[in-house]
Amino acid sequence: MRGYVIKRVAQAIGVLWAAYTVSFLVLDFLPGDPVSAMAGAGADTGQVDPAQLAALRHQYGFDKPILVQYADYLGKAVRGDFGDAVSTGRPVTSTLADALPQTLQLTGAALLLAVLLGGGLAVLATYTSQRWLRQLLLSLPPLGVSVPTFWTGLLLVETFSFRLHWFPAFGNDGIRGLVLPAVTLAIPTGAQVAQVLAKSLLTALDQAYVETARAKGAGRWRVHLRHALRNASLPALTVVGLLVGQLIAGSVVVETVFSRDGLGRVTAAAVTAQDIPLVQGVVVFGALIFVVTNLVVDLVYPLLDPRIVVASGRKAGLA
Description:
Elements lengths: L1 H28 L4 H5 L11 H11 L5 H13 L13 H36 L3 H8 L1 H7 L2 H15 L10 H31 L3 H8 L4 H38 L5 H10 L3 H29 L2 H12 L1
Helix pairs in contact: 1-13, 5-6, 5-9, 5-11, 5-13, 7-9, 8-9, 8-11, 9-11, 10-11, 11-12, 11-13, 12-13
């Protein structure tokens, strides 16, 4: 178990480093000059005193070779220092600290709804003995995945805000203001959970151990939940861990549609301004949330199936 945990933690650190490095290189290759944009010169640097531009580039380290910049930024990032945002001059950590709680609230609520709705739909679809109802329920997840998130958000706003006046259309107005954005994010996520879990449940229900449980007199509900669902939940659990990254990315669209303050809007503004320190801070925090969630999923695996640790140990021994 100890070696399993160490291996997963090392993989998580590798993902964080890769996310930081890729974001740094992508931003460096983008056209434009963040210092000129900060000085209000746009593409025409002749409108600003060259000495002022040189001072700003020196302040943010943009006058150094690319490898030196990378080493400096990475060294500071390891210590939790992402510098100051080029576009606002505020510390990156302060900017993220202000925006992150709203995004975590939104993605957390959306993930909870996705698991409950997707899991409930999969269990109901595979439990019912009515063929027509099963086919109807199993046809809903592909529809939920295919519908664009922004279209779902606009439809919910039109229906439940402008027509029924049940929820506010825009802003961060407490729990009521969280409902529509969370549902918008949860629909495609829950649909993917339902697809994977339903397929795994149907496969598990055909296994020999399920037939053995039935032969011993276990009822349908007990067989479905205690025997089949436990084994079928592993693929769905993997999907949930991966979908955390999708939820964070989807928050950019949802927070724009619902005019919510959060990490998504900060990211959009930072990319537009080519604000390298702020974008890298966003990427690292987003990747940190992603890897921590997947690390938790990896550590839960052995609790559901102890054979995973045994198999991992055998592979390490063979290596």
